[in-house]
UniProtKB/TrEMBL annotation:
GO BP annotations listed: endoplasmic reticulum to Golgi vesicle-mediated transport
Chief site of localization: cytoplasm
Cell compartment(s), UniProt: Cytoplasm, Perinuclear region; Endoplasmic reticulum; Golgi apparatus
This protein's encoding gene: Trappc2l
Matching InterPro entries: Longin-like_dom_sf, Sedlin, TRAPPC2L
Name by which UniProt lists this protein: Trafficking protein particle complex subunit 2-like protein
Keywords, comma-separated and alphabetical: Cytoplasm, Endoplasmic reticulum, ER-Golgi transport, Golgi apparatus, Transport
Record organism: Erithacus rubecula
Keyword Endoplasmic reticulum appears in the UniProt entry: yes
Assigned protein family: Belongs to the TRAPP small subunits family. Sedlin subfamily.
One Gene Ontology CC term in the entry: perinuclear region of cytoplasm
SUPFAM superfamilies with a match to the protein in the record: SNARE-like
């Protein structure tokens, strides 16, 4: 099954991109960029309510014929976008929410690393391992 995970800065600059299989990467780029507009709309619609929360699970952003696209935003407005196969009906909303929380925790660990330069692409073996195991869980 094909899937993708993106972590994106508020300025829509990608911090981390992971696609499985890699030959679908271009299709994922288009899908994720389209979904970032939906994320921005949801954030602006929520306004101050977002500021009062530590993080925000946006749920299903939109389904296409091939994929379901889910979104999540941290309090620092970093966007997490997950793309999964539409054929995957076993995945529950609360499972996706907990995956995003796990991702958020790992992302926070990276941000706390004194050797990480904020805004740089994420190159972390621990983060990759966590993402790989999460993607295996989704298949």
């Amino acid at each position: 099954s094909s899937q993708a995970l993106w972590l994106v800065l508020p300025q829509n600059y990608p911090l981390y991109i992971r696609s499985v299989p890699t030959e679908n990467e271009l299709k994922f780029h288009y899908t994720v960029h389209t979904s970032l507009d939906v994320v921005d709309e949801k954030i602006s619609a929520m306004g101050k309510a977002l500021v009062d929360q530590r993080e925000l699970y946006l749920g299903l952003l939109y389904p296409t014929e091939d994929y379901k696209v889910y979104g999540y935003v941290t309090n620092s407005k970093v966007k997490f976008v997950m793309v999964v196969d539409s054929s995957n009906t076993a995945l529950r909303d609360n499972e996706i929410r907990s995956m995003f929380r796990k991702l958020h925790n790992s992302y926070t660990d990276i941000m706390c690393n004194p050797f990480y330069n904020p805004g740089d692409r994420i190159h972390s073996r621990a983060f990759d391992t966590m993402v790989n195991s999460m993607m295996m869980q989704v298949c």
